[in-house]
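Hi R.,

As promised, here are both runs. First protein below:
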Amino acid sequence: EGTMTIGDLVAVNTYVVQLLEYLGSSYREIMKSLIDLEKLFELMNVPIDIQDAPNAIPFRPSSSSSSSSVSSSSSSSSSSSYIPSSSPLPLSPPTVEFRDVCF
C-alpha cells in the first residue's frame, strides 16, 4: 500500500541511526590511527640527544636471562648470569636493601 505505521518509522529510524553511529565511530577510529601514525613518523625524525660512545660495547642479553626464570636461590651460578661476557667492568647481581623501615 506504500504506507508506514509509526512503529515502522521508529524501527527504520533506529536502524539508520545505529548504522550512522557505527560508520561515525569507525571513521573517528581510522582518523585517530592516521594522526597517531603521523605523530610517530614525526617522532622518528627528532634528532637523538644522547649518543653512544664510539667505543661502546653493544648490549647482548644472554638467552638464559628472562623474567620468567627468576629464582630465589643465591647460588654462585645464578649470580654469574648477571655478568656479560664482554664487559670489562666487574658486575654483581642487583640487590635491594631496606633501612629504617617500620610496619
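And here is the second one, sequence first, then its C-alpha cells:
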Amino acid sequence: KASDAESMGLGPANSTAETEPGVVQELSYEEKVSLISACESSLALTREELTARVKQRDAECSGEDSAKEQLKEATKPGVMYMRASLKVSSQHSLCESEKQVVAALQKQAQVQEDRCKALGSQ
C-alpha cells in the first residue's frame, strides 16, 4: 500500500528510498529538501482551493437563505411559488454539496500539514 506522500506523488514518506526491491538507501539532503518543498507546495494549493471553496459555500448557503425569503413572499400557489420552491431546493443542494467539499478539503489540508511536519522532523 502506498503511503500518503507516495499517493500525492511526493515519493517515500520516510527518509529512505527503495531503489531496487529489498534494497533501501538513505535520501540525500537535497532529496529530503525537495520532498519537503513538494509537500509544502501541495499543501499551499490545497489551502488555496479550500479558501475558494469556503467562499463558494458561503455564497451558495446565502443563496439558499435568499431563496427561502422569496418563497415566503410568494404566498399564492402558482408559477412564482413553484419557481421559488425549486430555487430553494436547488440552493439547498448546492449549499450542502459545498459544505461536504469544504469538510473534505479541511481534512485533506490537515493530513498534508501533518505529513509535511513529519517529513521536516526526519
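A quick note on the second one: The chain is about 75% helix and 5% strand. Let me know what you think.

Best,
J.
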